[in-house]
Amino acid sequence: MATLYLVEQGAQVQKEYQRLLVCKEGEVLQEVPIGRVERVVVLGRIGFTTPALLALLDADIPVVFLTQQGQVRGRLTGRTRGNLALRHRQYECSRDPAFCLQVARSIVSGKLLNYRARCLRQGRRGQDEAAAIAEQLRVYAERALQADDMAEVRGIEGIGSRLYFRLLRAALPEEFAFPRRERRPPPDPVNALLSLAYTLLGESIFAALEVVGLDPYDGFFHSDAYGRPALALDLAEEFRGIVADSVVLTLLNRRVLRASDFTRVGRGVYLKPEALKRFLAAYTHRLNERVWHPVWNKHLTYQQVFEGQARLLARLIRGESERYIPFRVK
Fold this sequence. Notes:
Blueprint: E1 3-6, E2 12-16, E3 19-24, E4 27-33, E5 39-43, E6 47-48, H1 50-58, E7 63-66, E8 72-76, H2 84-94, H3 97-123, H4 130-145, H5 150-170, H6 189-212, H7 230-236, H8 240-253, E9 262-265, E10 268-271, H9 273-288, E11 290-293, E12 298-301, H10 302-318
Parallel strand pairs: 1-5, 2-6, 5-7
Antiparallel strand pairs: 2-3, 3-4, 7-8, 9-10, 11-12
C-alpha cells in the first residue's frame, strides 16, 4: 500500500507501536503498518492524535488534506527532500524562455499523442469519429514540437483537448452526458469525477517530484501562481487521458458508478461516501498497473512511471540530456 486514503468522516488516526489505527466510536476500522505507507491522503473531517502525526513526520511520510469534495487544503511534510544544487538549477531553467518552450513542446506533444492512443482504442469499440480525431491529434502533436512560442503551444494544446473531449463525451453512457469541462464547482457527475481524478493525479506526481528532489511549485509550462504546484501540473498533462480519464470512463461504462451515487451540494455535484471508496479503489488499481517504459526499458507501475518521468526531467535540468522525453502509451 503506497498511499493510504482516509475517507470515513469523524474517524481518528492513532498510533500503536509501528501501526496506524483508523478508529471511530471505539472501533478499529483499519490497521496499517507505518512501513507500508508512503503517503496519506485525507478527504474531509478526519482527526489525528499527536503521536500519529509525529510518527508520520519521523517516517518522512507526507499527509495531504483535501476537502470531502476533493479540493486541496494543504500538506503536512517532514524534512525537505531533495538536492539543493538541482533545485537551484531548476529555478534558473524556469526563468529561461527557451528552456521552458522546449519542455512545453514535449509535454503538449506527449499529451496529444496519449489522447490519440485513447481515441484509437475508442475507435476499436465502434466510434466512427475516432480515427479522424486521432489523425488530427497526431498532426497537432507534431505541430506542438515546432511551435515558435508558448502562446502557440497553449493554442495547440487547447485545440487538441477540445477534439479529444468531443470523443470523450461520445464514449460515455447517455445518462452521463456533459456539455463541457467545468471545475469550480463541478456541475455534473462527469465533471465531478474528472476534477477528483485530476486532483489525485496531481498529488501522485507531486510526490514523485519530491522523491527526485525537484520543487513541485516551479514549473515550465504552467504559470507559477501562489500556492499552485506548477511543475506537478506540467507533468500531469501527459497522464490525464491515460490515467485519470481512463479511470472515469471505466467506472461509468462498467456501471460501477451510477447517477444515484452522486449528490448535489450547493451548485456542485459530488460523489457520495460509499461511491467515493469505489472511486479511490479504482484509481489505486490504475496506479498499480504495470506498463512498459521505453526509456527505462522495463515494466513499471504508473506511480513508478511518474517518478521515472521526474528523473528524466531532472536529467535535462542538469544538462545530462538534450530534451525531455514524454511518456507515451501504444
